[in-house]
Structures are given as C-alpha cells and as structure tokens.
Amino acid sequence: MKKYDWILHGGRVIDPANDVDGIFDIGINSGHIEVVAENLDVALAEDTYDATGKLVAPGLIDIHTHVYNHATPLSVDADHYCLGRGVTTAVDAGSAGCDTFPGFRAFSVKQSRTRLLAFLHISRAGLSFCSLAGGVDLGELESLKLVNEEDCVNCIEANRDLLVGVKVRLSDTLADKGKNENEAYRRALATAAKTRLPLMVHHSLSVVPLDDCPGAMAKNDIYTHAFHGHRSSIIDPNSRKIHPAVLAARERGVFFDIGHGMGAFNWTVGEICASESFWPDVISTDIHCFTHEGPAYDMPTVMSKLLHIGMPLEAVIEASTFTPAKAIGWEDRIGTLGVGQEADIAILALEKATMDLEDCHGQTRSIRKRLVAHAVWKSGVPGTITHPIQIPNLEKAKAARINPLRPVICD
Predict the structure, then answer these.
(1) Is pLDDT above 70 for 136?
(2) How many other CB atoms sit within 10 Å of the CB of residue 370?
(3) Domain that holds residue 154
(4) 228 marked ligand binding residue
(5) Domain of 263: which CATH number?
(6) pLDDT digit string (tens) for 331-346?
(7) Is residue 14 one of the residues assigned to a domain?
(8) Residue 222 domain-assigned?
(9) Is the dihedral of CA 327, 408, 404, 365 positive or negative?
(10) Within this chain, do residues 167 and 215 fall inside the same structural domain, yes or no?
(11) Taking the model in full, what pTM does it have?
C-alpha cells in the first residue's frame, strides 16, 4: 500500500501562514496534508504532480464573489469560475439576505465542490432582484422595510457554519437616491456588532462621506472595492492622495479589499496607492456574470494586476490566502499548507506576458508577467482547471472607455 495519495514535488512552496518559502514536496493523504519536506520519495505515492518551475500555494480564498447561481441576476457557477481558477474557498458577498439564504445553502453550497461561505446581506432580499450599482433605478435598499436587524441576527445565529459576516452596499442608486444609505449603514454596523462578525461595506457613488465610511468601521471590518476611482474613492480628488480617514481606519485594523468587479479597479488609483505603499490587505475578484470575461476575469488575473503595480509576490500570495482567512475568522481551517490541514492547494505559474490589460474604465497597462492557475486540489482531490475565453477583452475595454459613468480619478 502506498503511503500517500499524492505527492506534489519540485515546486516553490509559498505558505505565508507558516513563513515557508522554498523548494519543497507535499504529501497528501486522506484529504489532508501529511508532510511538507524536501525530496520525498515519489514511489510512495499513488499519484504525483511535477510542480517544478511553478508556485505551490494554499488554495486561493476569494472573499468577494457572487455565486448564488440562477437565483440572482449577477451570480455565476463557483466550480467553473472559482475552483477552476485555483480558488478553493469562495465567499459570496451578499447575494443572499435572511429571506433567501436557505436557498443558497440548498442550491449553491450543497451542489458545489468549491467551499462556499457567505456574507449575509443586510437587505432581506439580498440581490435577488438587483444587479450592478451604477445606473440602476431599483436597489435592495430602496425601502428600509427590507432592512430588519433582528431577522438578520436570527439568520446568522442559525447558520454560523456558513455565514462569516454582514454585507451592505452604499451607493445612492441602490437606496432611494441615497435617502436610505445612512440608516442602512447604521443597521448593518449594529447587526455586525451584535453577531460579533465583520461588516463588509461596498462604498461607491455614495452620499456617506469617508469620515463615516470607513470612519465608523470597526477593527476586522472589510472595506471592499478599495481601488475604485468613482465618487467616494479612497483617493482625495483634489490632493490625489489617500484620504486621512482611510489611513486612520487601517490603523484601527479595518481590512482593505480589492473587490475588482465591473467598476472597482482603477489603474490610476492603484498606482497612487502603490506610491504610498498602501497595498490591499485582501485581493478578491467580485466575480459575477459581467466580470468573468473581463475586466476582472479571475483571481490569478486580479493578483497579476497587483503584481504589475509593484506589490511583492509573497504579499500577493498572502493577500489571496492567509489574510482573507483571517478576515473571515477561518485562519485555523484554511489558507495554510500546515501539516494536518485540509489539502486545499493551488499550483500557479508566473508566466511571461505581453498584453495591454484593462482596468474597469478601459485604461490599460502593458504587463510583462502574469499568474495563471495550472492545477488545484480541494480537500486532497484534484479539480479541473478552466481559463478565460479571451484575455484581454478589447471590446469590453473599448465599451468601458465610452461608458458615461466616468471615474473622478483617472489618467
């Protein structure tokens, strides 16, 4: 009988949680990591994978996705667009509210190989009838009758195995022309505090000032879409520097998350942040039906954009594995390659590239290297890798350049 189900050998193992960065082999048995060591005897394994020249990382953790497939206008299939790109844990960012969460458990969680967790939307309907924030006439906060703290708390207490936080979207187009934003935000903050869970806040095109958001956010809350360039950007449009309330929030322990999406990654904002060494704590895609063919594409592509603006590779890996695990309170279970952990593993290649890669506004940068998923194991079982149909998507970039909803921060 073989000692290991799998040996992954010869790759550069980057495991920030355990301060590991070097050439090692990994032995997998019964769905768990049994050993991380040099020069394992491959004859002891039922199957092997030669990772020479590649990066071996903990399974990627994408904490901003929309994967309540077929139940909301935005959502996509998690196994294709997450697991197929090296993401072993995907956290749905508020697609379900307290009235619709049972369906998320039954029809998404139980039917996916990808580990699915969720932020519960403060709106009881979640995103069941809502789509993008910009240019819509009806949002999930159109009436405060949809926002009930007690019902949200009860839903969280009944589903703590899956619910890792609370979500609110603060955009005037989603909240009766901004009239309901401040009260919805107050209720979301209160619900998170009552349940001792983080609040993830989408804050773009909002009437809520930065002094209040992220100004009122608490330690371990998550400010997503951090690199957008619209009104409510973390960059002051006059000084073109990071707003003091943002720096103060980071000092308090607020996590800043990319949440790329359709409108929330701006090359100019990213470069300004890079010049101030303000790197995101967490990298995520906001993958949904409008982003999987650009401009976000997938987790490795968003990671590649951070590499391009100068974020060190090791920091990019940490912001895609261990830090998101900490942000959702699961660092004892996922995001590491420690012995005894579930064998959630992503094999990535750092490839040479020559492409003009777009942001959400059609601005491009000429990238020379990119991360690409080559293999993935979820709980010790290999998954099927998928790839974007077309990258870069020049037609989408062209359409973004003529979108009337222009950023206030741009080239």
Answers:
(1) no
(2) 22
(3) 60-327
(4) no
(5) 3.20.20.140
(6) 999 999 999 999 999 9
(7) yes
(8) yes
(9) negative
(10) yes
(11) 0.97
